[in-house]
Amino acid sequence: MLESQAVLVASKRAVIKHSAVLHALVLLSLLSSTFSWQQHFSLLRCQVTANMKGRSAEEVAERILSQPSLSGLQGPTISPVFSKRDGKVIVDYYAIVICVPKKDLYTSVQQLRGIGGSGVLVSPLTYIFDAEPPRWADFLMRLGL
């Protein structure tokens, strides 16, 4: 197995003057983010979405956060699921979204079921953009952009 790297050489003027060059660099930034997260998270994360019955988003959050492995990257995303009963719009369920390591997927689904989760959907995560990559921010700073 060989290790390789690519080096981009461009003048500051060309990058600022030609938007196509900057767009290419944005694409490189996306790839950099992908490879960086793949290295740190080993491509082993899934997005898990489930419905949970509850009186409020806070109540549902309490149940999810009672299971430390279900906290996601920064915590669960919780959204109301609207339905109609007797001509009125109501909220009985909440959709929750978390990010879990693939190796813990089965355990996470079991934990979700144990606290009332149903209709569990799992999607692979291709990209995770947390903060702007430091190299990209440094590059833009050097260009004065």
Automatic annotation (TrEMBL):
UniProt-listed Gene3D superfamilies: 3.30.70.120
* One Gene Ontology term, aspect cellular component: cytoplasm
All copies of domain Histidine biosynthesis HisG C-terminal, residue ranges: 48-126
One molecular function GO term is: ATP phosphoribosyltransferase activity
One GO biological process this protein is involved in is: L-histidine biosynthetic process
Protein's name in the database: Histidine biosynthesis HisG C-terminal domain-containing protein
